[in-house]
Amino acid sequence: MKNGILFLCLTAIVSCKETSKEVQQEDKVAIEQTTTTTQPAAKKPLSPHTSAMAMVGDAHIHFDYSSPGVRNRIVFGGLLPYDVVWQAGAHMATWMETNKDLNINEKKLKAGKYGFFVIPNQDQWTIIFNTNWDQHGKDEYDKKDDVLRFKVAPKVSDAIQEHLEYKIVQTNNAEGTISLGWEKVIVEFPFKVE
């Protein structure tokens, strides 16, 4: 009888140890699976790539750019000096494409794809459409490739626009405005679809 009770006790102890080992093994597998499937949160880009598009009449107008943030910096006249060409975005040059000819500042901009550059200034910004649209920043910018250049007075706002933003707004069936806003500056100019 004593041997039987002893045998049952030993069997129960061994059984508990085996069950404990199985539970530990399952926990270990679960922890390893959690560790391998959990990835760190993707870091948000400082200058996200974005675009602005609109149909005005039968013209499709598309701006493609990277949108830098102010991040508590003085942008115009600080980070971006006055009277120096800027690619109007971050990283690659900003480009604009239109499938129809546009009239901008009493001049024709033929249908096509263009690099969009500006020269900021406190009183007047120079707006530039350039044939070299595929370049990093303004590394290959050359004034001889400009197809349209004109000046616009900037508007200063009290509110801060944290990220650079382009807007294309239709004002009637064949006309609209293009604007860019960043920090406290907004630059806007009208166009007409030809």
**Largest beta sheet: what is the strand line-up?**
1-2-3-6-7-8
Radius of gyration: 31 Å
Helix content: 10-25%
As residue ranges, the low-confidence spans are 6-14, 29-37
Shape: globular
Compressed to H and E, one letter per element, the order equals HEEEEEEEEEE
Helix/strand/pairing class, anyone? alpha+beta
Largest sheet: 6 strands, antiparallel
How much strand content do the residues show? 35-45%
The total count of strands amounts to 10
Mean pLDDT across every amino acid position? 87
* Count of helix runs: 1
Q: How far apart, in Å, are the first and last alpha carbons?
A: 107 Å
The number of domains is 2
InterPro entries: DUF2911 (IPR021314)
Pfam family, one: DUF2911
Protein name: DUF2911 domain-containing protein
Give a structural overview.
The protein is globular and about 45 Å long. It contains 1 helix and 10 strands, in the order αββββββββββ. It has 194 residues and is an alpha+beta fold. It is 19% helix and 43% strand. The longest helix has 36 residues. The protein folds into 2 domains: 39 residues; 145 residues, no CATH class.
Topology, pairings included?
Layout: H1 2-37, E1 49-56, E2 59-66, E3 95-98, E4 102-104, E5 107-109, E6 112-119, E7 125-130, E8 146-152, E9 155-172, E10 175-193
Antiparallel strand pairs: 1-2, 2-3, 3-6, 4-5, 4-10, 6-7, 7-8, 9-10
TL;DR of this structure?
This protein has one helix at residues 2-37; strands at 49-56, 59-66, 95-98, 102-104, 107-109, 112-119, 125-130, 146-152, 155-172, 175-193.
